[in-house]
Structure formats: C-alpha cells, structure tokens
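Here is a typical sample entry:
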Amino acid sequence: MANIPLTRCQFLLPFVGILDDTGAPTSSLLAKFRLPSSLVDKSDLYVPLMPAIRFMETARRSQGIEEFGFLASQRLHFSHMREKTRALIAHSPTLLVALRHACAWAPREDTILSMWIEHDDDHARICTRLAGTNGLLHMEHLQWIQNIFSIHIVRQFAGPDWMPATIAFEARYTPRPATQSLWPNVRFLSGQHAAWIDLPISHLSLSNRRKDVSPAPQAHEDGPSGYDIVELVKLMLPSYLDDGIPALAEVAEMAGVSTRSFQRKLAHVGLSYSDLLDTVRYENASKLLRDTDSRIIDIAFSSGYTDPAHFSRAFRRIAGVAPRQFREQSRLG
C-alpha cells in the first residue's frame, strides 16, 4: 500500500492568509496543486504534504514574498495544535512530560513527522524531522513551523517571552538579516541533522504555567467532561496523598460517574488515572522541595510513596532530575 504523507490543513492556513492579504490569486494557486480552495472549516482535516510544499514555494516565487515560512510561522499559536495534544501538554506536570507527549503525538500533526529530545551536556535539543524529505528543496517553510511549535510548547512552562539560544534547520537555509534581528541573541544554524531548538536541561523540570485548553463540549455524554474530571480530581487527590490514596473505582464514585465512564472521560483527553496521580504527587513534592526544608524522605511519604527510592525514581522520570538536584536548581533560580 502506497504511503501518502499528509499534513493538517491548519498548517496551510497562515500561508493562505498571507496570500489573501497581498491580493494574490490564492484559489488558483491552490487548485494548481489540487488542494482544497476552502481550508478554514477543514483545519483538523488532512491534505497531501508534497503538493502543499510545492504550493508554498510556487506561491513564494510568483508573489515575491521573502521569508514566507517565517511569516507564516508568526501566525501560528499554541492553540492551533490538535485539541488532544494541547490537553496533554496543559495537564503535564513538567516540560519534560509535555515534550514526551508532543513527541508521541507528532505524527498526528504531520503523518511523517518525528519529534524527539536529545541531551548535550547542560542543554537539550527538541528535534523534528519529516521522514523521506532529505534533500528536498525549500523545506525551510515547514521547518519554521516545526521549530515555532516547539517554542510554543516551551513557553507554556518558561513564559511567553522565552527564546532558545539556537534555532536550527535541516534545510540549507539562513534567515535574512531582517528576520534574524527579530530574534536577538539567537544563533541560526543550517544543514543540520534535523530542525531543532535548544534549551537548558534545567528547564525540563519547569512546572506548567498555563492551562491553555479549549475543550469541545461533549453533548453526547451526561455529567462532567474529561477536562472537568481532571481538574476536579487534581483538586481532590492532594488531601489523600499521605493517608491512603483512593483506588480508581473509589475516585470514580466520588466524581459521581461509573468506573468505565471515568476511564473513558480520562482517555478522551489522553490520560489515565495513574498519569493523573503522578501529576498530583509531583506537584505536591515539587512545591515542598522548593518552599520548605523538609527532608526528602518526609516529602516522599507526604506525596504518597511508601518507598523513598521509588519516589526518587518517579520524580526523576517526570522532572528529568533527582529531588535533591531539583531543590538545588530551584533555589539557584
């Protein structure tokens, strides 16, 4: 069976918007590559990726638009990611967990998109690559989009003004001076093994600053949605951490839904009860590590762990650093 690389219509909309603003013959350009003429109502649907790339470059050349990919990337926001991906990121306890979710779900944005994290001394790289496109020209348009979305994810944790030290492209491409001037103190690299941005490894343990999720109403179900359930359980569970954590069936009963319905609602936002419990435990422990001088063994017990070694392993998995190192980094920050 032939593999047809697909991309979400959402990623074509900023290019179309730029063309419409300049009075370009957008419809005829789209039709030339057999792309839908109306994309606004199809943002979560898919179109073939290769014709989309040819459309971008043909439009850029014919209309004389410099830095087409960069300009398009400036019209995209965190809210343009798929709803489920946004929900997973918004409910992630740390940036590291959010990036793992983004990596797992990247192929739902572009079907041949890979995303991964690399570690390099005291920095990490968030890398993206479209499989099978090595050597294709004009890939910088989409690589701007890929890097900007990585930046938007980090900004959910590091703040809206955060910038990477480096923005790298797999394409043989260097932004024009006017574009580079908009990214002060950022180094640009081309011809890399992937598109990537870097960040200090200490950022991976940053806690979530925002809950930027716009849940769609679930008219076919009675009771609270998965999003409501997540927030309610996150408010309730801290009361039980040091005194016997309730089982899934008990939490479902407290929430007024069946166990099956509770699991289904969580699954709708891409979470399980154990994910939710991990988040609550981490948020409790990280607050105590930052704000108190409590012993780590006491923090482990108060976060619902009976084995301090298990606590340390779980904390490292979520934060990327051990509890003691997290405390040191928090106080240095």
Summary: The beta strands are 6-8, 46-48, 113-120, 123-130, 166-168, 187-189, 195-200. The longest helix spans residues 140-158. Residues 6-73 form one domain. Residues 92 and 275 are 9 Å apart (CA to CA).
